[in-house]
Write a structure and sequence with these properties.
By secondary structure, the chain is α+β, with helices and mostly antiparallel strands. It is built from five helices and four strands, in the order H-E-E-E-H-H-E-H-H. It has a four-stranded antiparallel β-sheet with strand order 3-2-1-4. A hairpin with a 5-residue loop joins strand 1 and strand 2 (36-40). Helix 1 runs antiparallel to helix 2, helix 1 (5-22) packs antiparallel against helix 5 (130-155) and helix 3 runs antiparallel to helix 5 (130-155). The longest helix is centred in the middle third of the chain and has 31 residues, at 81-111.
Length: 156
């Protein structure tokens, strides 16, 4: 199971989902230039008194945890390659939803009037793209394995 390349790719996708929770997503300067607002999935750091005005990153965090759970479950379905491919396709859709919700939330933060635009995206924002790439590569490896198994069945 662990020696398969798709398992390693899916494991990297889970690790990138979990790591993105703890890394900063975006950085803003406050309107009054008194500080810098750093946006994490779990909340804000160095927030001003207008913290209640800012939209919540809760849905981004929730979708990221759901994505990590789907990919983690997929790792253990290595004997059922067709189901693995279907779950990977679902995880790609969830990842697209994560990106959409993230950018909607970021645009709401910009429109709140508490921060000055433009947004500086940090490593966490780029890290939520990584699971999509890893899942696509894992799907390619799973299809390759399925093709080998079918070819071996034909030879019998």
């Amino acid at each position: 199971m662990i020696q398969r390349i798709q398992t390693l790719l899916l494991l990297l996708a889970v690790v990138s989902c979990i790591t993105a929770v703890f890394l900063p997503m975006a950085t803003y300067r406050t309107v009054d230039n008194t500080g810098i607002l750093i946006v994490f999935m779990s909340g804000y750091e160095n927030a001003t008194a207008a913290h209640e005005v800012l939209p919540s990153m809760f849905f981004v965090l929730l979708i990221d945890i759901l994505l990590a759970a789907i990919i983690f479950i997929t790792i253990f379905l290595f004997r059922r390659r067709a189901l693995q491919i279907r779950l990977n396709n679902i995880s790609k859709l969830v990842n697209i939803a994560l990106l959409v919700v993230f950018f909607i939330t970021i645009s709401q933060i910009e429109k709140s009037g508490v921060v000055v635009t433009p947004t500086t995206y940090n490593i966490g924002a780029y890290l939520i793209l990584a699971p999509f790439i890893f899942v696509v590569l894992a799907n390619m490896a799973i299809r390759r394995d399925e093709k080998k198994v079918r070819a071996a069945d034909r030879l019998r």
